[in-house]
Amino acid sequence: MKIGIVGLPQVGKTTIFKLLTEGRIDTSSWVKGREAHIGIAQVPDFHLDRLAEIVHPKKITYATVEYVDLPGLSRGEGKAALEGQAKDMATYLNSLKNVDTLLHVVRAFDDPNLPHTEGSVDPLRDIGLFELELIFSDLAIVEKRLERLSKDLKKGKSPELEMENQVLQRFKEALETEQPLRNFDLTPEEEKRIKGFTFLSAKPLLLVINVGDEDAGKIERIIDEYGLQKQASMHNVGITAVCGRIESEIAALPPEDARMFMDDLGLTGRALDRIIQKSYDLLGVFSFYTAGEPEVRAWTIPSNTTAMQAAGAIHTDIEKGFIKAEVVSFEDMVELGSFQSAKGKGVLRLEGKEYRVQEGDVILFRFNL
Ligand SMILES: Nc1nc2c(ncn2[C@@H]2O[C@H](COP(=O)(O)OP(=O)(O)OP(=O)(O)O)[C@@H](O)[C@H]2O)c(=O)[nH]1
Ligand SMILES: [Mg+2]
What we know:
Elements: E1 2-6, H1 13-20, E2 37-42, H2 46-55, E3 59-61, E4 64-69, H3 77-82, H4 87-95, E5 101-107, H5 123-155, H6 159-176, H7 188-194, E6 205-210, H8 222-225, H9 229-232, E7 237-242, H10 244-251, H11 255-265, H12 271-283, E8 285-291, E9 295-302, H13 307-314, H14 316-320, E10 322-328, H15 330-336, H16 339-344, E11 349-351, E12 362-367
Parallel strand pairs: 1-4, 1-5, 3-9, 5-6, 6-7
Antiparallel strand pairs: 2-4, 8-9, 10-11, 10-12
């Protein structure tokens, strides 16, 4: 999973990046500019920790997320791309090419020492403003491609080009009325035709409201606090909040100290867990586990994945040679301690190719090489 951290300038993107990567990546020497910075973070996972306690494996492997911390995108940059001045936008788009989700950091903290680029703190305005830049950037790409397509279609028709033309015309209409592309449900074929483009407004969007140190109490009721009901009801949009500055400091503390500070501030959970959970929900993914003595490992898959596809997530050979999946639920595994005792108690299930893997399943694949 790959997540791009985006937003207006000076809203706390790098602060949140540090929090998500638990301060393990030194950001102090970073040059300002259009270059993005990349960090890989383990996904905290209490299921995995618990399984490791009972299996005592040689190795524990967490799922990982790759975070890309981007420079701020200022008002007007998407629009400039639309007007053919896309110099900086190309680098920006390139950094976001393979990103699964945009994590939009929205400034809600006030700080007299750090003037807001728009003159005042107004999360709702910034969400709209940023969305519009994404829409303009997409429209620039759509218009350019449509121009090219109309020339190509005059030379000779092909079903592929016609389908692409149709999809892009629909996109154009939507974008011109300021609708983001993440509202569209495309067929797999349509998706394939447009895969090569980086349409920013098509990516799932996680809004992360960055509140001030004194506003930790607002995190739980962030939607009402900032009037985000409309955003909350949108397709492919998730919302959460952090106290960026203070929570990134807490993230660097030993757990007992962290707990004390969190209690003082009225924080019920860690920012890291909040953001990961929301990202997983937004993308509709979860983890299943393999738990052998050499390695206990989490595997992230989309909901509705079959046992056969899950095998493929581990290795194509296991998918190709798939015979059966031996499945024990996380709860049974923790209670009984091993596949052997799960079998003895009759709670180990033998599942076939089409079995839909459930969150927390502990699986042993049987396969032929
Ligand atoms: N008061 C307050 N300041 C914050 C908070 N989060 C970030 N800041 C401050 O805002 C400034 C910018 O933070 P960064 O994390 O570098 O912001 P950014 O969005 O990465 O900035 P650019 O990459 O330059 O666009 C720093 O001085 C931070 O200390 C916060 O929650 N509260
Ligand atoms: Mg930054």
